Every structure is written in structure tokens, then in C-alpha cells.
Amino acid sequence: MGRLRISSRRRGADGPAERMMALERHSATTSDPAPTSVPDPAPQERSGPPDALPSHPRRRRRLVALLVGLLLAQMAVAMVTTAVRQTPTIDEPVYVGTAAEYLHEHRVVHNPEHPPLGKLVVGVGLVWADPRVDPSFTGDQGRLGRHLLYESGNDPWRLMLFARLPVIVLTLAFGLAVFAFAGELAGAAGGLAALGLYAFSPDVIAHGSLATLDVPAAGFVLVSVWLLWRARRRPRWCVPLAGVALGAALATKMSALAVVPVVLALTALSVWCARPSAEPRRRALVRAVAGAGVVALVAIAVVWASYLAVDPRLLWSPQQHVPVVHGLRGLAVDLLPFPEAYRDGMRIQFGFENHPWQGFLFGRLYTGSLWYYLPAALLVKTPLGMLALWAAGAVALVAVRRLRRAAPYPLVPATVLLASAMLGARDFGTRYAVFVPMFLAVAAGCVLAVRWRWAPVAVAALVLFVAVSSLRTYPYYLPYSNEAFGGPARTHLRLHDSNVDWGQDLGRLADRLRERYPDERIWLVYKGSGVPSYYGIHAADPREVPAGEVRGLLVVSDSSVAKATGRLAELIDSSRPIDTVGHSITIYRR
């Protein structure tokens, strides 16, 4: 009773104002209950430790936006200025010619071994270039591009630049995805570190500035996986969009099929993690499986849409030999839920895999493929600071508890794609693994989530080292190799093909011969799709005449040097090297 009387006296001492303030405080604490439908992500899913950036939110956002803009701007300058000076590489005329065919004839005829979407991207540039197209052309796909570029009254320099620009824009957009993905894992500083590695990657710059399909396909896979990570919080929108990105990858290169099971498993995992805490486990499992099904169906629809965009009638009559594929491969192709042109393209790809291609690694010429070729080539062609950060990032994702739930997203797709590429029959270059610098840039950014005092300083120093190494090789990104292997001038001693010499320096060779060697007799062995005479190079093939008649300048593409046998090897051995062009072509004196 005494306690009640004391309480009554205190209550009575409060005036109306005090009682009103107490009521307002009570209302403020009860009027906005926390939402229960979608739980707020755990802090460790969003970021690591505080970033070494200004603490004021507005200044922080402005600084981050400025740094992102600067990194992408330097990447854009590097890619555009590189694209302007490079002549067509081996694959580009095929894709450009096929894209022009899509736009003007609206049918799938050439290059069925690659689906249409990547070539439709290239075709966006051709719409602006408005090339002259010869509808009466009847040659194969190898002749198609050369006919368009050199025999139809078009300017190949202008046409190739316009064809490359859409891929450059797409490559820059993928850089934003790298920044966003790493930023969600390790904060803004981690996103900037990841973007720095991506923006200075010689492989990404080299192949992102070409009208080819490797970077678009890899980038679409990256976007799909990033969206699946976001689906742990927002599955309703991110899951279908992930299906669109996966379908875009499948509609660009068939090699993306290897990652489909991984993407579907990550979809199920993300939807499972997004379930409300009160939802029964059985119902959550059904939702997870349904999410994977949505991604698969949307991806299939995107592939069909890419073919319908070219030819709404879906007419298909193969103009080249389509091999018969038996066994499990044949059954897998028959079961693919894609247009017949896609399945025939897959059969052609399997036919390529049965061909005895030649490879070149560390000075050894061989026939067939080596399972360790791609890891070895990546070791040569990746900046040393990037290799260190890749390794540290992978360890951080697995070892740091708050990052462990994110580890499957960047690491498993990259591992599966790399394993699939290592089993391929064509040891032609790191372009088959260009997804590695994309995914592992995200992993590298996670080093800044490690609570170690010197982590920001070490990461910044290594990213700066990568930037310096990349800038030193400008504008010769294709033949890049790191300092441990002698730099781009010595890459041809260890690797060949698109690692070094893909026909990109024919224009530079013409300038060099005109400036330093006028009126010289030229003997040329060129590996590429360009037409030397268009650039003013009038040369003969030294392999077609007796060795004693080969006098003057012997000019040989470094890929041809690497694979030289018989007559050509004898000519090279009896000649004296006097000059190089773009680290991809060697000039000899005879």
C-alpha cells in the first residue's frame, strides 16, 4: 500500500505538460515497428570494416563517385585509343561481317558456332557506320568480313572503330558491376580497389577494345552472379534479372553453358537465404527450387529472343559442314531447349574440339592441348600485384567468418568456368579465361574487409603497382606480360596467338616500313585477317620461292615465328632480326 501511495503522489506531481511529453515519447517508440517481411541484411553481408574515406556522408559519396569516374575514364581512353590504331584481329572480320548480314538480310547464315547476341551488340555500331553491304556475296565466313571491309567500298578503319565502340561501352558498364559487387561485400574502399584492378587489367582492356565476344560473355555471367548475391535481400526483382543476364551470356558464347548449374544452385541458395524466419522449411525449399526454375526459363527465353531478333521466321539452313556428335555430347545437344541453329552451332564447336590444334608454351611447340596451359598463361600475362591481391582476396573470402557466406558467389563460377576452359582443345590465349580478372577483382576487394591495420596501405600499394605496370605497356595490351617474364617485348618467347599476335599491328607495320625502310624488297608471313596491300604493303610470300631468292626484309608475325617449321624456320635462322612492331611482328634482314 505504501508503494502505491508513493506512486500516486509522484503521478499527481506531474503536470499536464509532463504527461503530454511522456505520451509523445511512448508514441514515438511504438508507432513505427520494424518490418518483418524482408529482414535487414546482416552487417557482414554489406561491408567489412569502416572505409579509409571521409566520414561525412555527402563528401564520401562525392569522392567515391569521382574516383569511379576517373578509373573508368582512364580505361575508356586506353580502350578507345587502342582500338583506333589496331587493324582487324583474326576473329573480328567474321563477327563484323556476320553482324552486317544480320542487319541487312535478317537471317542466320554464317558463324552459327556463336549465338547472335554478341554480334548484335557489334551491329549497334554498324548501324551508325552504315556500311555498304554486297547482298550477292556467297563466300564462307572467313571471306565474308574481308569482303565487307576491303572489297565493298568501305573504310575499314572507320568501320572497325564503330564496331568496337559498343563492346567498349559494355566493358565499362561491367566495371560498374565489379565496383558494386565488391562494394557490397567490403565497402566503398573495397569496391574502388576491385574497380582499380579491373580498369587496369591488360587482358580486359585488350579484349574489351575489340569487336569480339569474350568480354561480353564473361561480363554477363558476372552481372548474373552479382544479381544473385543481391537476391539474398531482394529476390523478387533480382532473380528474374539474373536470368536475363545469364541468358545474355548464353546468347553470346556457348562456353557459358558450363556455368549454368552453378548459377541455378546460387539462385536456390539466395532465395533460401531470403526467406522470412517464420516460413516453414519445406515451403522455403519449394521457393528456392522455383527461383532456380525462373532463372532457367528467363535465360532460355533470352536465347530464343536473340535469334528471333535476327530472323522472326527462325529459318535455318547450314552453309557449312555440321558434324554428327555421338554419345553423351550428342544427347546433351539434342536436349538443349534452344533453336536448331544453336544446337548445330554446338555440334560445330564439338567438331572444333576434336581437331588437333597446335599450341605454344614457354618455347615448346606441341600438338593437342595442355591442361595447365591457361593457369600458366595467366601467370605470365597478369600483373604481379594483381596476382597477389587475387590470392589474398580468395583467402579472405574463405577464412574471414563474416565474408564466408559470400565466398561461393565470386569463387565458384570462376573456378568452374576455368576448369571447363582448361579441358578445351584450343590453347590460343587467356581470352578464354577473361572472366578470371573480373571475378577475382571482386574477391581482391574483400581484402579490405580484413581487420588488419596495414591492409589499406598494402592494397593501395599493390593496386598502384598494377596501374604502373598496365600504363607502361600502353598501347600494346595484347602482348602484355608481367615484369617477372620480361614484359611485352618478351611475351612471344613464351606464348603465341591472341596472347601476343592476333594480326592487330598490320597498320603499324605499314607505317614502319614506309618511314624506316622505303624502297626495300619485302617478304611477308602475316598471321591475321587484314589485307596487307590495302595498307600499302606490297610483299611476296618467302615460302613460295627458293631460299636463295629471299633478299631484303623478311617480316614475320611472331605467332608464325613460334610455329615455324621447315622452309620458314630455315629462313628465320639464317636471317638477322633488326626491328619489331608492336611486340607482335619481327623484321629480319637477309
Question: Any overview of this molecule?
Answer:
With about 600 residues, the chain is mostly helical. It is built from 23 helices and 6 strands. The chain has helices at about 1-15, 15-30, 45, 55-85, 90-105, 115-130, 140-150, 155-200, 200-210, 215-230, 235-250, 260-275, 280-310, 325-335, 340-355, 375-380, 385-400, 410-420, 435-445, 455-475, 505-515, 560, 565-575, and strands at about 360, 365, 520-525, 555, 575-580, 585-590. The strands form 2 sheets. Strands 3-4-6-5 form a 4-stranded mixed β-sheet. It has a two-stranded antiparallel ribbon with strand order 1-2. It is globular. Residues about 1-50 have low confidence and may be disordered.
Spell out the blueprint of helices and strands.
Layout: H1 2-13, H2 16-30, H3 43-46, H4 57-85, H5 92-105, H6 117-129, H7 141-150, H8 156-199, H9 202-208, H10 214-230, H11 235-250, H12 260-273, H13 281-310, H14 327-335, H15 340-353, E1 358-361, E2 364-367, H16 373-381, H17 384-399, H18 408-422, H19 435-445, H20 455-473, H21 506-516, E3 522-525, E4 553-557, H22 558-562, H23 566-573, E5 576-581, E6 585-589
Parallel strand pairs: 3-4
Antiparallel strand pairs: 1-2, 4-6, 5-6
Helix pairs in contact: 4-8, 5-6, 5-7, 6-8, 8-10, 8-19, 8-20, 10-11, 10-12, 11-13, 12-13, 14-15, 17-19, 17-20, 18-19
Radius of gyration using CA atoms only:
29 Å
- What global shape is seen? globular
Query: How large is the count of helical segments?
Result: 23
From the N-terminal CA to the C-terminal CA, the straight-line distance is 118 Å
Strands across the major sheet, in which order?
A: 3-4-6-5
Which stretches are low in confidence, meaning pLDDT under 50 for 5 or more residues running? 1-50
What structural class is derived from the secondary structure elements?
A: mainly alpha
> What is the string of helix and strand elements?
HHHHHHHHHHHHHHHEEHHHHHHEEHHEE
> What is the residue-mean pLDDT, rounded to a whole number?
91
The largest sheet is: 4 strands, mixed
Helix percent band:
55-70%
Tell me the strand percentage band. under 5%
The number of E-state strands comes to 6
